[in-house]
Specification:
seven-stranded mixed sheet; globular
């Protein structure tokens, strides 16, 4: 497979049709599992683009993933993370979740939170692999909603390279 160019960008209202299409495609596989369209498929993204931050992951210029977040007082809320089926199992979902961590750290927040359907086993497994823990579960529309949190350890400062300091640096 030839190398691919992966990039991130912040979405605008012009990206709403691409976001809507990607989310509908990414969540379609869950309809037979839960017997209904998952809630993200029903979201009005033309409205949501004003209330949430949307970051897009593109592969060779095509939207392959989306991260929908909101800053809260003590955590970053992940409303949605979705990757197009043709781009799944390539680390893009994990990359979007790393971006969420960076956004939280930049805002000075110490936690990430999200909810997911317990029936979305592969999603739950990814979140757990990345350090999210189930804090609460509750019945919802014939299934179970899991509320998951990932506490962020304080960032460790970058150590200067051996022998590098401002006094010994020379300029050409």
């Amino acid at each position: 497979m030839p190398p691919q160019f992966v990039a991130f960008s912040t979405a605008t209202a012009a990206d709403v049709p691409a976001i809507r299409a990607l989310v509908r495609t990414a969540y379609a596989k869950w309809i037979p599992i839960i017997g209904r369209e998952p809630r993200p498929m029903l979201t009005d993204y033309a409205e949501a683009i004003h209330d949430f931050r949307f970051d897009l992951l593109t592969v060779d210029g095509q939207v392959a993933g989306v991260l929908q977040t909101c800053l809260c007082a003590d955590h970053l809320w992940i409303e949605n993370v979705a990757v197009h089926p043709h781009h799944q199992r390539r680390g893009h979902g994990q990359a979007l979740l790393v971006l969420a961590e960076q956004l939280a750290r930049h805002a000075g927040l110490g936690a990430l939170r999200l909810l997911t359907n317990a029936a979305f086993a592969s999603n739950v497994a990814l979140y757990q692999k990345l350090g999210y823990v189930v804090e609460q579960s509750e019945a919802f529309m014939g299934g179970t909603t899991l509320y998951m949190t990932r506490q962020l350890a304080p960032a460790t400062p970058i150590r200067p390279a051996h022998g590098w300091n401002n006094e010994s640096r020379t300029t050409a």
